Amino acid sequence: MLSLLILVFETDLGTSLLFFGIFVVMLYVATERTSWILFGLLMAGLGFWAVSGAERHVASRIDAWLHPLASAGGEVGQIGQSLFAFGAGGVVGTGLGRGHSWLIGFAAKSDFILGTIGEELGLAGLMALFLLYALLSERGLRTAMAARDPFGKLLAVGLSGAFALQVFIVAGGVTGTIPLTGMTLPFIAQGGSSVITNWALVAVLLKISDVARRPAPVLAEAPV
Prior knowledge:
Structural class: mainly alpha
Number of strands: 2
Number of domains: 2
Radius of gyration: 21 Å
């Protein structure tokens, strides 16, 4: 309900989807019931469908996702330009600085910076970038497994899930897999608050990992 209220009052699809995803992931980890994931996906789909009928901003995002190559005013939209960028990059890319990210518009340095990477570094560069993101998320999950207390486990899982969901939401929107949300790509996209938040996320995971792997203190024997 909180996620849907954010979507209704802020018309922010990205933040709503991120909060809802974190809630479902942590609920699944805490209860070990797969039914929560299915129920959560059903609730999210019904909620977005209902809000898209009332909010024009959300409906326009869905229309742009369904028709990425439809032109508005004689120009193809941002998703269409991003798809052309991925196609132009091919497997190995056009080379650094040889892309045409300016065609995407003002968002070329925020969420659509992934399109620039796909054009200049190609599919190989994108796979390398996604592997680095996956490695960071995997280390966060290993930290959750190593944590001794339940709160530390859930906190590490939630932070790792938040990071992975950010990458999925941005990459899915830019590639046309899901509706565009306007979120920033962690550590790459331009934006001060996003960079600070993700570094704070990594700092908390490092602290949990340090506490989890620190040797247990040896209790001194009381004198007789």
